[in-house]
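Reviewer 2 asked us to include a model.

Predict the structure of this chain.
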Amino acid sequence: MACAIPQKCAPRFRTLLRLYLCVPLLASIVWLVLALAYLSPLDRLISGGVTAALIVGAAFLPGMYYERLYYTRYPGWLKLERGLFLRTIILVPRGQIICTRLRRGPLERMLGLATVILVTTAGRVTLPGLTREESARLRELVDKTGETSAPEEV
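Predicted model (structure tokens):
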């Protein structure tokens, strides 16, 4: 690979994030309906504010998180950058990767996405929101590199 280009997650990953935020959003709306029926006006106002904040968060946070999550494949290592407010850069040397795992939950399967988990000597690194083809390509690339870096038997 002559030039390393940052790879974004699949655009459907944004939809998956929105689906994950729907559960607390629905719970908040149910709480608001109950608050309107049984609580005092001040408690209603607080519940309405929390629900409005969750609605705004469900609208904007998935897109912001999606835009700040990508990885780059280099010849000897992987670089993962993520973080909404605090930026985290993770450098993973390919020689340190013990194995790769593929995780696909029901929502990920519906959207054609997968999460690749790299088990390294230092711990686990997850790459969420990849398409099935990209995750298979990444696993294949990591596995090939691991095979070539292993010492040969004489």
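The beta strands are 7-8, 70-73, 77-82, 88-93, 97-103, 113-120, 124-131. The CA atoms of residues 21 and 75 lie 36 Å apart. We have added this to the supplementary material.
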